[in-house]
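Input chain follows. Return structure tokens only.
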Amino acid sequence: MTESHASARPGAAPGQPPGGTAREDPEDVLGRLGGSWTWMLGSALATLLPGILLLVWPDATLQVVAVLFGLYLLVTGAFRFVAVFGQDRGERVPGLLTAVLYVLAGVLCMRNPLQTIAALSVIVGVVWLVSGLLTAYAALAAKDLPHRGVLFGAALLGIVAGIVVLALPSESAVALTRLLGLWLVLLGLMELAVAFAWRAAIRRITA
């Protein structure tokens, strides 16, 4: 993620009412929020916690797995949408596409939680593969990212996860639950590394 373009505005804004305070642009507010390391930490936890739940509850029914994974996709999509505003405008397209993909896939999972294992596997595999490719592109294109290598590593992990799920479809709900839980934990740990790398970069800049 690149440096946030949101900044404090000194002085009164044009057209500001006498004695009043300037209205802050929502884009600037979202930019500061999405560009903060704590927001990245929240996104990482939103990935890690469902993974832990799936690993400690491998006998969950397919319906529970679909709902849990759907909630993960919707929450992560919201996190990624806000994070887009922390990027320079010319670099927002991959992040925006990823956010839309997560939300659409989350809606599909929540809309029909009684779907087959094969259908859920396809949704999961496509989401991880496409989002991994988009994240890898963003990491390679934004050369000024201080945590570029870690982000690229997380993207590769997502690509591998997508390929594994698509190429080796699970034959049982238990196998799919364990596979999803494992990959979510690994992805969550990588996202935690990205968040802490971003915090270290911010501290170096402000020191």
